[in-house]
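Researcher: Let's try something more involved. This one mixes different molecule types, so please make sure each is placed in the same coordinate frame as the others.
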Amino acid sequence: MVAGHSMNTQPTVLLTNMRLVVCVLALLTAFSAGECGNVLVWFTEGSHWINLKIVLETLIDRGHNVTVLVPDASIFMHEKESDRFSYQNFSVSKSTQDMQDSLNDFLHFSMYEMDRLNLLQIHIRLYQLISKDQQLCLAYCNGALKSLELMDKLLQEKFDVMLADPIFPCSEVLAEKLDIPLVYTLRFSIAHTMERMCGQIPAPPSYVPGAISKLTDKMSFTERILNMLFYLSQDALASSLWKTIDNYYTEYLGRPTSYCEMMGKADIWLIRTYWDFEFPRPFLPNFKFIGGLHCTPAKPLPKDLEEFVQSSGDDGIVVFTLGSMVLWRYGGEKPDTLGQNTKIFEWMPQNDLLGHPKTRAFITHGGTNGIYEAIYHGVPMVGIPLFGDQPDNMVHMTTRGAAVVMDFNSMQTQDLVDGLNAVINDPSYKENAMRLSRIHHDRPMKPLDESVFWIEFVMRNKGAKHLRVEAHNLTWYQYHCLDVFAFLTTVLYICFKMAKFFIMRCCFRSKRKSKKE
Amino acid sequence: MVAGHSMNTQPTVLLTNMRLVVCVLALLTAFSAGECGNVLVWFTEGSHWINLKIVLETLIDRGHNVTVLVPDASIFMHEKESDRFSYQNFSVSKSTQDMQDSLNDFLHFSMYEMDRLNLLQIHIRLYQLISKDQQLCLAYCNGALKSLELMDKLLQEKFDVMLADPIFPCSEVLAEKLDIPLVYTLRFSIAHTMERMCGQIPAPPSYVPGAISKLTDKMSFTERILNMLFYLSQDALASSLWKTIDNYYTEYLGRPTSYCEMMGKADIWLIRTYWDFEFPRPFLPNFKFIGGLHCTPAKPLPKDLEEFVQSSGDDGIVVFTLGSMVLWRYGGEKPDTLGQNTKIFEWMPQNDLLGHPKTRAFITHGGTNGIYEAIYHGVPMVGIPLFGDQPDNMVHMTTRGAAVVMDFNSMQTQDLVDGLNAVINDPSYKENAMRLSRIHHDRPMKPLDESVFWIEFVMRNKGAKHLRVEAHNLTWYQYHCLDVFAFLTTVLYICFKMAKFFIMRCCFRSKRKSKKE
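Model: All components are placed in one shared frame. Result:
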């Protein structure tokens, strides 16, 4: 890389692919300790699990018991991962390979297929992919919900709260069956469909860009049209896709219900972003923005790594990683073509490196967890977004002037060199990264503390119904006052017609009268 | 009075009229202390001032300097009230009597006139009253803004933030002239016009009742029509009334602007309620709900008062006061008809009495400050609302089952007896009051700490622009996507017409062809 002020010195690039977030748990002092409770966790995968695990560790530190429901086909959750959680396994009719295949199909679609397809084709392919994934998810649901033995055991354990990511369905039905409150943890749903349609969060399409639309809050007329079409098409897609789950829930609970209605019963939605990242937008009292809860101050580096970092002199170092679900991984011998100032690691202490004073830039795939560590430490970024929310995440950072972004499919070596030069040598990138860092740190309560507070609140108070808006009990036409408008328009129309009738009659009479005269 | 379980024992009534909120300042530990700053406060009156003063005291405790701008015609703010603030007087062309007259007109209107008038008459009278009040307010603005000497002095003092209640205009222009950020403290504006139209907070009329509408979040079809009409009429009234201020601002700043546009520049809106009182509704990142910041634990009562309270035995006591802007006041000798168990005070330690374990009920006019003390200590209420937001405030408490309400104009002695009997003897009232108290106390941060945090945040960061929604930069038709809908409808219409044209042409051709054949 590319450090310092000149491109003549060969850069120090740290290349990694498997990462692990090691978090020192923040000391919680700001709220009174509740009684110890029993926390049940619905299975989740990937970075969702990495993030949730930190909250669970903290709950255990505070004396609660945590039980994690793990399907035997899980890719990321492993029974022996930590002996602090109680793992409750359940069998499913699908294999880990089925789940991995589904994931691979998604990756392939968003990285290679999407650019070659038109809008209609994208929606059709997305419908096929999500439908297939839903079948998998419902097999998981069956594994838990239809096992009498498991359900009996869970009922007897008397849990106080259920934690779940709504991206993986069925936690809602399980919470209802166990008669316990539900707390969601969510990064986003496409075009915010879940948050809007089921959580009742208002999102005017004129300035709230749909999640993963790559739009910002400042939209031109054309962009506002695109955003509106994105909302409408995604809402239609979701409504159509969720029918399968609607039927499953209705059948299981033995009364007419829907996925959306059940999601709307969640007491708290912990959203894994904050206003350092998110464009400001409306929200509701039961939505809490707790982005960056996994971030911690940097710990000292191992001696050899510290020596290597120090060898960069004034030029400093660049950290390079493509996240936990990597596609680009290098595990062999270090190639001869790499300079002495470049090191390759199977795993590296990413957070400690980002927090090192010598770090000048971060080359990232644009995952939320990594971006948040860069925000936390005020490091400018070069983004090479790959799939999912990553391109959209990087738009949030480039809009704020804290990053430049590369196109993975078309980028050349020189693009990366230019990008790194820009974020390192143009001071505005560092200043903007530091501004985001200030916003991140300067808030009333640490995000991890806030998450734990609201989970414990729900446990103490058996829910948080006082934060739930009445919108949940309105139909869509009532919510938008369409019935009120229809009534008022009708009344106005009748008034107008009557006024016209009486005026005509009046004029006609007076005319007739004057004629007579 | 009226304590215990039977109406046979004569009640212990504590009657007062002037009240003073004595607040022990909460220890602030949850956030890092910023550098000391200069705080400028725009004048305000009545309970608005009582509430704001507590925040100012805390800012001074934390080392900041506070300068309060006081017109020489103020009713409630007095230069010698506290030697901890710097008072900056300014002359206005109106007298204290003018202000008092305007206030009395408002009180008379809302207590006696309103019930006798129809909806149109109410709006006309309200228009007259507010117009007259605006002239007064603009005289105040002139006193400050057009005094070159004062403006020079303020500019030289280099303030870091301006605190103001938007109910009293001109703080916006002053903040702009001094080039400092603005923090609002607001209880409500009628039908939330300021919050909605200028602060850009979304408020769907289907479940967000307009402030002082006396409606709840659960509305019937008729109520939703009424709420919609209330919103529409108040928006029209506000738009029309604000024209005077729009012109004043435009002339003063020498560029076209409006009252609403200037209000929209406020960095933070501190709203003096919370979800223990407010029906849950959408809000924005720069709206902070800090209701009840003046509440503190009860201090021991003076010896004679404690003895009197103890003499009530198991029956307990009832606290009775009609607030700081009283109409019903008794200052003379105690009448012979009052029993031995009733005491009259010129002033009483209301908060300490409400927090006393022997207190069974609180007879209140329904002011927000008093209601919050009752919520804090979990005391059920009998409301005798008089004017302004008081009837609406009591609706919030009756809806939650923590109060009964009397009609001031028609109530009989027996109604009050029945009401007190209900809240004392029916345990549901106490339970509901305690539930609200739990919600009040069980939040991540004390409301006073949260207020001070956001004021200091704005001082540290010279504003809070990252919390300001892009909606401020959209026109009303852009905000509601009317231009997008118009475009999409036109495109759909053209597509439909073209499709029809081609189908017709096709059919026509094939018909002609077959005819020919």
